[in-house]
Amino acid sequence: MHQLVTDLLNGNRRAAARMISHVENDDLIKRELLKELYPHTGKAYLIGITGAPGSGKSSLVDCLLQEMRNDGLKIGVIAVDPTSPFSGGAILGDRIRMQDHALDHNIFIRSMGTRGSLGGLSRSTREAIQVLDAFGKDIILIETVGVGQSEVDIVKTADTTVVVLTPAGGDSVQTIKAGIMEIADIFVINKADLPGTERTTTEINVMLDMKKEGGWRPPVVQTVSVQNKGINYLWESLQEHRIYMQESGTLENIRLERVKRELTDQVEFLLKNSVWNQVKEEIKLDRLVEEIARREKDPYSAASELLDKLNIFEQKAGEDG
Ligand SMILES: Nc1nc2c(ncn2[C@@H]2O[C@H](COP(=O)(O)OP(=O)(O)OP(=O)(O)O)[C@@H](O)[C@H]2O)c(=O)[nH]1
Ligand SMILES: [Mg+2]
């Protein structure tokens, strides 16, 4: 076994940090390390926290860490910001007290930006989760800014998803993106010290009642994270949802789905890489591009000709026969 993996499994923080850097930089050694780690993963419970920029996600995480530590849990935090080029340990703690937690050896905090993550941010996030899982964290909190498809993808890796909203001043919650509504297991109306809290809460509840699908009904929890208010209810809701997920068998199902997605992603990734590596070696891509640009060729025929030349599919068929 690789020394770094041994160190990580023995609880060495620096090993965990280095391992995540390998993941982020897509270093060659990464795949070997992840392979060795994999048998040690699958134990952590994953909680996604998403919401608009500035809605109070980090302050909520900060409060939740306290509740979870009181219950003796070990926690990993990954703050994913698709809009930030920064990564490492710094940005998350800038604004808030999370730095205090960073000194607690039962808590591991890491931010991930777009820099370096060549394989895609959702991919490197997933791998960082595996690292912290193998590292022995009971719970992994994943904070993502709600800006687009990327955070919806990242949220798909969570067992429980918390959507953080703020009182919708003049706006109606109807303007909330549909995709976000559907991924929520728990709604938080943070900044409940601000006007409009009751109306926003009612509007969400009305929307949820209209859906009436049976199964889990997302609770709507009001919090004031800067005053540590409502956090105990949020923690209770999180625990209730976890129990629901376990007892209904939903957890098992979504985890199987996730593994399936990982497998297909991996196949597509390897296939794509191997195709483009061969293309680089064997085909004058620039010339082909020029031909298409001059309308001497269409991109559809060019693509299939390209694959024909590479012989990828024929080779496989030949091997089978
Ligand atoms: N009034 C009020 N302000 C809050 C509350 N929670 C957070 N804030 C403030 O809102 C701002 C953003 O808080 P963060 O916790 O950094 O929000 P975030 O969602 O993590 O922000 P990004 O990571 O930048 O998207 C800070 O200035 C907080 O002090 C709250 O309950 N009430
Ligand atoms: Mg934040």
Overview of the structural elements:
This protein is of the alpha/beta class. The protein has 2 domains: 206 residues, Rossmann fold, CATH 3.40.50.300; 61 residues, no CATH class. Helices cover 54% and strands 12% of the residues. The chain contains 15 helices and 7 strands. It has a 7-stranded parallel sheet with strand order 3-2-4-1-5-6-7, sandwiched between helices. Helix 4 crosses helix 11. Magnesium ion binds next to helix 4.
Largest sheet: 7 strands, parallel
Overall residue-averaged pLDDT value: 85
Q: In total, how many beta strands? A: 7
Task: State Rg.
Answer: 23 Å
Q: Looking at this structure, what is the CATH superfamily of the largest domain?
A: P-loop containing nucleotide triphosphate hydrolases
Gross geometry: globular
User: In what range is the share of β-strand residues?
Assistant: 5-15%
CATH architecture of the largest domain, by name, is 3-Layer(aba) Sandwich
* CATH class wording of the largest domain: Alpha Beta
CATH third-tier fold name of the largest domain: Rossmann fold
Oligomeric state of the chains in view: single chain
Low-confidence segments: 89-96, 317-321
- Cα(first) to Cα(last) distance is 37 Å
Hetero groups in this structure are:
guanosine-5'-triphosphate, magnesium ion
Order of helices and strands: HHHEHEHHEHEHEHEHEHHHHH
Main β-sheet, spatial strand arrangement = 3-2-4-1-5-6-7
Q: Which structural class do the helices and strands define?
A: alpha/beta
**What is the helix content?**
40-55%
What number of structural domains do the residues give? 2
